[in-house]
Specification:
CATH topology of the largest domain: CBS-domain
Largest sheet: 4 strands, antiparallel
Number of helices: 7
Order of helices and strands: HEEHEHEEHEHEEHEH
Helix content: 25-40%
Strand order of the largest sheet: 7-8-6-9
Shape: elongated
Number of domains: 2
CATH class of the largest domain: Alpha Beta
CATH architecture of the largest domain: Roll
Strand content: 15-25%
Number of strands: 9
Distance between the termini: 58 Å
Length: 225
């Protein structure tokens, strides 16, 4: 999904000739604390509600120095690219520029989060599991193969680890978070543990039994014979 697909055409872009009062009204109407400023199609930056409140409502936007004029995204970029900017600068709105640096529109942080959430499959029913592993043991294709062998699929994955670390560094553990399309994943957990992967946590509406519990049950069954 490219960012141009997320342009919010209903969100106004401030002009230098707009008044502070008009800008504050638009912010209240759209329930947002920032708006992009542009002169024709030239991006000038972002102004926030806190800044506007220091001025009289009759003052013009041209009298205010917008911030973050170097912070924007390009129309061809993926939604991932905007997440870092939003987090780093505390943005509620982001300007989208074309290759000629002309503004095409704006997107809101809420829309980015909503669409990113859909990409991660959070709206789908299924369990989440966290696998702890060394950098050198990371192989999404191998882990996916084991999961798919149990008639389940990986809807999304997130790997958190130091990709520049020495793969032989045993102290450098990473985490792989997986969203699956199934809630009952006891057998999947058992399979992963059987192949040497450490399942650190599981999140599901159904109880998860570890491979140790499975072995314990088998022993109890054997002793009762």
């Amino acid at each position: 999904m490219t960012l141009i697909e997320l342009i919010n055409h209903d969100l106004p872009i401030l002009k230098p000739t707009d008044s502070v009062g008009q800008a504050l009204d638009w912010m209240e109407e759209n329930r947002i604390g920032q708006l992009v400023v542009a002169d024709a199609d030239q991006y000038l930056g972002i102004v926030g509600e806190d800044t506007l409140l220091d001025f009289d409502e009759s003052d013009l936007i041209s009298e205010i120095q917008p911030q973050l004029m170097e912070v924007f995204v390009s129309d061809y970029e993926h939604i991932y690219e905007s997440l870092n900017l939003i987090s780093k600068h505390g943005l509620q709105v982001v300007a989208i520029l074309n290759s000629e640096k002309r503004i095409l529109g704006t997107i809101t942080a809420n829309e980015v989060y909503k669409n990113f959430s859909e990409l991660l499959g959070t709206s789908e029913v299924g369990a989440v599991l966290v696998v702890s592993l060394k950098n050198r043991d990371y192989s999404l294709s191998e882990i996916s193969r084991l999961i798919e062998g149990d008639n389940a699929k990986v809807l999304s994955s997130y790997y958190s680890g130091n990709t520049h670390a020495d793969p032989l560094d045993e102290e450098n553990a990473a985490k792989l978070t997986l969203k699956l399309n199934r809630e009952n994943i006891s057998s999947i957990v058992a399979t992963l543990e059987r192949f040497g992967y450490m399942v650190e946590a599981t999140y599901s509406h159904e109880p998860i039994e570890s491979v140790e519990q499975e072995r314990y049950d088998m022993l109890m069954k054997y002793l009762s014979i």
